[in-house]
Amino acid sequence: MEVEEDTFEEETLEEERGGPAEELEEVVVREENPPKTVKIGSTLAPEHKAMLQKVIRDYNDVFAWSHEEMPSIPPNLATHRLNVDPTFKPVKQKKRYFNLNRNSAVQREVDKLLRAGFIREARYPEWIANVVMVPKANGKWRMCVDYTDLNRACPKDSFTLPKIDQLIDSTAGNKTLSFMDAFSGYNHITMHPSDQEKTSFITNQGLYCYKMMPFGLKNAGATY
Questions:
Q1: Phi-psi region of 117 (alpha: psi -120 to 50; beta: other; left: phi over 0)
Q2: Which segments show compositional bias classed as Acidic residues (predicted)?
Q3: How does DSSP classify residue 208?
Q4: Which helix (H) or strand (E) holds 26?
Q5: Greatest extent of the chain over all pairs of C-alpha atoms, in Å
Q6: Could you tell me if 68 and 116 are in contact, meaning their C-beta atoms sit under 8 angstroms apart?
């Protein structure tokens, strides 16, 4: 996990964010309690709106609402690999200790990741990182992994993300635009088997490594 200083001015942070360009209406995808819904633009032409609603309901099985329902991208299509400089000596960070509240949050997160198949037990890893607990706005904890040492040993991808003007140009000529909220998007992509144990982290429960691509790695954004 790389920590950078916030360079925004205070007045920039206080600026009001713009709202959506049009009103949105909810479409029920699954009849559950509570129902699972998605949002579509209310200004769509009636025939387009009816067609879109039918497609969403007919193919409701493609939506994932939990980690267990989430499929992964086949490894033959995409995997994330680490280009670790062999001149760097592997680092095993000294274990950090947390209070009972944070330890309980770590245990819950580890259990959830194990059930989803995102992590596995690591046996004798050469790289070991600590977890970092970050408070969320709702009062809960977010578990991150301190990959500072591992990232230092990896060169930065020369082509990280497409330029924003390329993304805008690619929408030219299209009548509609769809925004997809990719549920745990990074965790759709597998870590290459030879690099999985380099992502190892330590907790009170033991040593674990990621089978799926985690947040915090230097070039994860470029792969995603």
A1: left
A2: 1-14
A3: E
A4: strand 24-30
A5: 62
A6: yes
Residue 212 buriedness (CB in 10 A; 0-12 / 13-18 / 19+): buried
- The amino acid at residue 127 is W
* Amino acid of residue 13: L
Reading the chain (224 residues) residue by residue, the pLDDT tens digits are 444 444 433 344 444 555 556 788 888 888 887 888 888 888 888 888 888 888 888 888 877 777 667 667 788 888 999 999 999 999 999 999 999 999 999 999 999 999 988 999 999 999 999 999 999 888 889 999 999 999 999 998 877 666 777 777 888 888 777 766 666 667 788 999 999 999 999 999 999 999 999 989 999 888 88
What's the whole-model pTM score?
A: 0.69
Distances 17 to 9, 11, 12, 168 between C-alpha atoms, Å: 15, 13, 10, 20
**What's the CA angle centered on 75, arms 70 and 81, to 5 degrees?**
110
| 3-state SS record for 143-166 | EEECCHHHHHCCCCCCCCCCCHHH
Rounded-to-5 percentages of helix, strand, coil across the chain: 30, 20, 50
Give 85's contacts (C-beta < 8 A, 6+ positions apart). Answer: 153, 154, 155
